[in-house]
Design goal:
The complex is a heterodimer of chains A (about 550) and B (about 350). Chain A is of the alpha/beta class and about 550 residues long. Chain A is about 50% helix and about 10% strand. In chain A, the strands form five sheets. A seven-stranded mixed beta sheet of chain A has the order 1-7-6-2-5-3-4, with helices on both faces. Chain A has a three-stranded antiparallel beta sheet with strand order 13-16-15. The radius of gyration of chain A is 24 Å and the shape is globular. The N and C termini of chain B lie far apart (about 55 Å). The chains are: A alpha/beta (about 550), B alpha/beta (about 350).
Chain lengths: ~550, ~350
C-alpha cells in the first residue's frame, strides 16, 4: 500500500469510528464515556495476563494515560480520546509495506520459498539445511479461473477468500498471487505470525496487516472492519480467510465469519455514494489443498479435546517451530507432492456470479444492475439488517463454491476408506471413543481397504464429472491400490505417528485422530448415504463454528 | 368528514408510503388484494394470463391499470405480488425475471410446491434477481376480504423492508400483518394445508365425524411440521397463524376446492374426471406427490400425506386409508412441538 494512502486511511478510520460511535450514542446506544471505559477495561485485562515486554510497557502507559484523562473528560475530550485510541490500534494494525521490499522478496522466491523460510530461522540455515531448498515453485499448482481473476482485478477491487487449514496458507496464497502476476493483496494475519521479527517484516511487506485476536475491545474490532473496508474503497485488493481461523476438524469450512465479508458490501455502497468510477467489489473464493497439514496433530487434538470449546487462538503449534516448518515442506516436496490453489468464479457482494466483464448475472445469465439492491428512497445507502442478510447469502454461496472446488488427494481418500471401515467394523462404538480408544476390531485387510477405496473413487469420480468436486490426477485416474499406496507413503513422512500403516497385507490405523482429521476433507458430500452410517461431523459440530 | 380511508391515505402520503404495486394473477385472491390496495391509495396494476379475466377485473375495478404483459405490469413497480397457482409460478416468474430489478419487493401467496418440492421462494430465486421476497401465509380468505371483513396474514421474509413496506401499505385498513422470518415454514405450512384439506374432504364425505376431522387436521399439521423442520423451518411456525391459524377457518378458496375434490374421491370418482370438472387449480394433488417423494429421500414418516397420495392415484380406498391413519399413534414430539418442550 502506498504510504500516503495508509495515512489517509488511518485518518478516515478515525473519523468513521468516532462518527459511528457518536451516532450510536445519540440514538440511545452506549454513551462515549462507557465505550471508552470499556476499551480501558478490555485492554487492561488483556495486559494483566501478558508477559512483561517492551510492548506491554508501552501499552500499559498508553492506557494509564487514557484512564487518567477519561476521569475529567467532557464530550469533546471524549471524542479526542476515542480518536487517540483508534489511532493507537490503527498504527498496530497497518503494515509498513514497502513496494521495494516486496519486489526484492518475491524475486527471491522463485528459487525457493526457502528464502522466506530461511528468515524463519537464520541460525539453523547453515547447520541443518536438508540438502536443497524446498522448491515451492515446482510444487504449486494454480488452477481454475486465473484469467478471470486477473480480469476482475482490472475491473474493480477483489477480495480473495481461500479455505484455511494451516498457517502456511498465508505464505502459499501470497506466493500464488505473485505467481498469477497480481500485485500484493492486503490481508490480516494473526499476530502470532509476526512473533519472529524477520518473518514479521516479510509478512508486513507482502501486504499483511496484524490482527490481534487477543483483543476483545469492540473499538478494536471497529478499527479492523473499517480499515479493511477502507482499503477496499481505496481500490486495494484484499485477502482474508472467511473461516476466520484454521479448520480444527480438517473439513472444508461452511460456517463463515460474516463481519469482514460484509466489508465488501459496505465498500461497494460507499463507492456508489461517492460516485467512484470503479465501484465494484468482487469476491473470489479459492481452495487450498495439500496432502498433509503441518499442524494437523495439534488442530485435530484441539477439536476433539474440547468440541465446542476449542481454542480459537493456538500459538504453540507446529508452525511456531521453524525447523518443523522446514522439515514439513522439504519432506512434502520430496514426494513430489502438490499444493493446489484453485481459483473459483467470482461473485458480487450479494452472491451473484459475475462474468469476465465483471457484470453480475441472474440465474438465467441476464445482467443485473446491482446498485438497485442497495437503494433506499432511490439513493444508495447502508441498511444494517438488509446488508447483513445479503452478506449471509454471500457466505452460503462461498461455502457451496468451496465444496465444489475442493481438491481431493490420496491422503483424504485413503483416510476416508480406512476410517469408514473402522466405523463399520465397530458399529456399537461411539465416534469419539472410537477415535480416542479404538474399537474391538482394529486392523483391516489390505484387500478390503482397496475395495472400499474403489467404491469411494467411483463415487468421487461421478461427483467430479457432475462438477461437484475436484480430484488430484492420481485420485481422478489412478487404481485404488496406487491411491492407497500414495496415501500411506505421505502419512509416513511427517507426523509423529502415521495416520495409517501397512504391515504385510494388513492396514493398521495407527493414529485414529489423524485419520479422522484427514477424512473430514470429504465431509459435506453425503458420501455416507450408501453406507448406513451417519455423517462424521454432526450439525452441532458445524453450528459450534469449529471450522467445520 | 374525513373517512378512515382518506385519513389513511393522507397518513401514507405523509410517510411517502404510496407505492406502485403490480399484481400478477386475477383470480379471487388477486382481485381481493387489488381491491384492498387500491382502497389504500396505491397505484395498482394487474396482469392476468386470460384476457377475459382482465376485462372482468377492468369492469369491476376501473381504477386498476390493466397490463397485457408481465413486463408492462411490473415495470418500475415497487412491489410485485404473485397471486398465481404453483403450477404457473415458474413461468410467470421467468417472464418477470426479464425486467426485475434488485430494489423490487416480491410477495407471493402460492400454497403449493414445484417439481422436486421446490418451494415458491426458491422458484422466485431461480428465475429472477430479486432477493426481498415475502411469503404470505395464514387464513387468506378471499371472500372475507371481498366482504370487507378483517384480514390477518403472516408475512414471512428475511428482509425487514418487506414487512415495513407492506405494513405501510395497509396502515389504516382492516388488515393485520404478522411478521415472521421463517419463509420455509410458512410455505410448507401453506402447501401441506391443501393436502390436509383433501383428507378432510374425504372424511366429511365418508361421514367419519368431527373427531376424525380433528385428528386428521392435527395430523396434517404435525406432518407439515415434520417436513418443514427437515427443510430448516422453525417448528413454532406451525403452531402459529400460518399453521393452526390457517386450518381453523378452512375456507380459503383453494382449500374449498381441495375439500370438494377430497369428497369426490371418497365417492369413488377417478381423479382425472374430478380435475376435468373442477374449475381452478387443486394444488394439494401435486403437493402430496412431491411431499411423498421428498419424505422418501429424507427418511421421514408422513402417513397422512402418503395415504392421501395413494388415494389420489387409485392405489388405496379412501375409507380404508383414512381408517388406517386414524389408528396410528399421534406422535406430537416430532413435528409440531419444538424439541425440548
Amino acid at each position: 500500500m502506498r504510504r500516503e494512502d495508509q495515512e489517509r486511511i488511518l485518518t478516515e478510520v478515525q473519523s468513521r469510528v468516532v462518527a459511528q460511535r457518536v451516532e450510536q450514542a445519540a440514538a440511545g446506544g452506549p454513551p462515549l464515556e462507557e465505550v471508552l471505559a470499556e476499551s480501558v477495561y478490555h485492554e487492561r485485562r488483556r495486559l494483566r495476563d501478558e508477559k512483561d515486554s517492551k510492548t506491554k510497557r508501552v501499552d500499559t502507559e498508553f492506557w494509564d494515560d487514557v484512564q487518567r484523562r477519561l476521569g475529567r473528560a467532557g464530550e469533546r475530550e471524549q471524542q479526542s480520546l476515542l480518536r487517540k485510541i483508534v489511532l493507537h490500534y490503527g498504527r498496530e494494525v497497518v503494515g509498513n509495506f514497502d513496494e521495494r521490499v516486496y519486489r526484492a522478496t518475491t524475486r527471491a522466491l522463485p528459487p525457493a520459498l526457502g528464502v522466506l523460510l530461511n528468515a524463519v530461522s537464520p541460525k539453523r540455515l547453515v547447520t541443518q539445511l536438508p540438502g536443497g531448498l524446498p522448491r515451492l515453485d515446482d510444487a504449486l499448482v494454480i488452477q481454475g479461473e486465473v484469467e478471470h481473476l486477473r480480469r476482475l482485478h482490472e475491473l474493480g477491487t477483489v477480495i480473495l477468500t481461500p479455505t484455511h487449514g494451516s498457517n502456511l496458507d498465508s505464505i502459499v496464497a501470497g506466493y500464488a498471487i505473485y505467481r498469477m502476476g497480481l500485485p500484493p493483496f492486503i490481508y490480516g494475519a494473526g499476530l502470532n505470525l509476526f512473533t519472529n521479527p524477520v518473518l514479521g517484516f516479510f509478512m508486513h511487506n507482502l501486504g499483511a496487516y496484524t490482527v490481534d485476536r487477543r483483543k476483545s475491545d469492540p473499538v478494536y474490532k471497529d478499527v479492523l472492519k473499517d480499515y479493511a473496508t477502507l482499503t477496499l474503497e481505496y481500490g486495494y485488493d484484499n485477502l482474508f480467510f472467511p473461516g476466520g481461523t484454521r479448520s480444527r476438524s480438517g473439513a472444508i469450512e461452511r460456517k463463515l465469519k460474516l463481519g469482514l465479508l460484509g466489508g465488501g458490501l459496505s465498500a461497494y455502497v460507499d463507492n456508489l455514494r461517492r460516485g467512484s468510477p470503479n465501484p465494484k467489489v468482487f469476491i473470489v473464493p479459492a481452495t487450498l489443498s495439500m496432502q498433509l497439514v503441518l499442524e494437523a496433530e495439534t488442530l485435530a487434538d484441539d477439536f476433539l479435546r474440547e468440541v465446542g470449546k476449542s481454542r480459537y487462538i493456538i500459538t504453540d503449534d507446529e508452525f511456531s517451530k521453524p525447523l518443523k516448518v522446514w522439515e514439513f515442506m522439504a519432506r512434502l516436496f520430496s514426494l513430489d507432492s502438490k499444493i493446489y490453489v484453485t481459483v473459483s468464479r467470482g461473485l458480487d457482494p450479494f452472491g451473484n456470479p459475475v462474468d469476465d466483464d465483471g457484470e453480475s448475472l441472474d440465474p438465467h445469465g441476464r445482467r443485473i444492475d446491482t446498485s438497485r439492491y442497495v437503494l433506499v428512497d432511490g439513493q444508495p445507502a447502508h441498511h444494517a439488517q438488509r446488508d447483513a442478510e445479503y452478506t449471509r447469502e454471500l457466505g452460503e454461496r462461498i461455502g457451496e463454491t468451496f465444496l465444489k472446488d475442493n481438491v481431493i488427494q490420496s491422503t483424504h481418500v485413503t483416510a476416508r476408506a480406512v476410517f469408514s471401515l473402522l466405523r463399520r467394523h465397530n458399529p456399537q462404538v461411539g465416534l469419539v471413543r472410537l477415535i480416542r480408544v479404538g474399537g474391538g476390531h482394529e486392523d483391516l485387510e489390505l484387500r478390503e481397504v482397496h475395495r472400499e477405496t474403489a467404491r469411494l473413487l467411483h463415487e468421487l469420480r461421478g461427483l467430479a464429472a457432475r462438477g461437484g468436486i475436484r480430484l488430484a490426477p492420481l485420485v481422478q485416474a489412478g487404481e485404488p491400490e496406487e491411491v492407497v499406496s500414495d496415501g500411506l507413503r505421505h502419512f509416513a513422512i511427517f507426523h509423529r505417528t502415521a495416520a495409517a500403516t501397512r504391515r504385510g497385507d494388513r492396514i493398521f490405523p495407527t493414529d485414529r485422530t489423524l485419520l479422522f482429521y484427514y477424512q473430514n476433507r470429504l465431509e459435506g458430500y453425503r458420501l455416507d448415504r450408501g453406507l448406513g452410517t451417519t455423517p462424521v461431523l454432526t450439525a452441532d459440530h458445524r453450528a459450534l463454528g469449529v471450522a467445520a | 368528514m374525513t373517512t378512515a380511508r382518506t385519513g389513511a391515505r393522507r397518513a401514507r402520503e405523509t410517510e411517502g408510503a404510496l407505492k406502485t404495486v403490480s399484481i400478477l394473477g386475477a383470480g379471487q385472491l388477486g382481485r381481493a388484494v387489488a381491491e384492498i390496495l387500491a382502497a389504500g391509495g396505491s397505484e395498482v396494476r394487474m396482469w392476468s394470463r386470460r384476457s377475459t379475466s382482465r376485462r372482468a377485473v377492468g369492469k369491476r375495478f376501473p381504477q386498476l391499470v390493466l397490463a397485457d404483459s408481465v413486463a408492462a405490469a411490473c415495470e418500475a413497480a415497487d412491489l410485485v405480488i404473485f397471486a398465481v397457482p404453483a403450477s404457473a409460478l415458474r413461468e410467470v416468474a421467468r417472464a418477470y425475471g426479464e425486467t426485475a430489478t434488485g430494489d423490487q419487493i416480491v410477495l407471493h401467496a402460492t400454497h403449493g410446491v414445484g417439481e422436486g418440492f421446490v418451494l415458491p421462494h426458491q422458484v422466485l430465486r431461480e428465475e429472477t434477481c430479486v432477493r426481498k421476497i415475502g411469503a404470505l401465509g395464514g387464513p387468506l380468505q378471499a371472500r372475507e376480504i371481498a366482504a370487507g371483513r378483517p384480514l390477518a396474514a403472516v408475512l414471512a421474509s428475511r428482509f425487514d423492508e418487506t414487512w415495513q413496506v407492506v405494513q405501510a401499505l395497509v396502515a389504516g385498513l382492516r388488515v393485520r400483518i404478522y411478521p415472521s422470518r421463517d419463509v420455509v415454514g410458512v410455505e410448507v405450512a401453506g402447501a401441506i394445508s391443501n393436502v390436509t384439506a383433501l383428507a378432510v374432504g374425504m372424511a366429511d364425505q365418508l361421514e367419519l365425524g368431527d373427531t376424525a376431522r380433528g385428528v386428521l387436521l392435527t395430523r396434517g399439521l404435525v406432518e407439515a411440521g415434520r417436513l418443514g423442520q427437515a427443510l430448516g423451518a422453525d417448528p413454532s411456525t406451525f403452531a402459529g397463524l400460518a399453521g393452526v391459524g390457517d386450518l381453523i377457518p378452512r375456507r380459503i378458496t383453494t382449500t374449498q376446492r381441495a375439500h370438494a375434490v377430497g369428497g369426490a374421491l371418497a365417492q369413488g370418482q377417478a381423479l382425472d374426471e374430478i380435475l376435468a370438472a373442477t374449475k381452478g387449480e387443486v394444488e394439494g394433488v401435486a403437493t402430496a406427490a412431491e411431499a411423498v417423494r421428498l419424505a422418501e429421500r429424507l427418511g421421514l414418516e408422513l402417513p397422512l400425506i402418503q395415504a392421501v397420495d395413494m388415494v389420489l392415484h387409485g392405489e388405496a380406498d379412501a375409507r380404508q386409508a383414512l381408517e388406517d391413519v386414524l389408528q396410528l399413534d399421534l406422535d406430537l414430539s416430532r413435528g409440531l412441538v419444538p424439541a425440548g418442550r
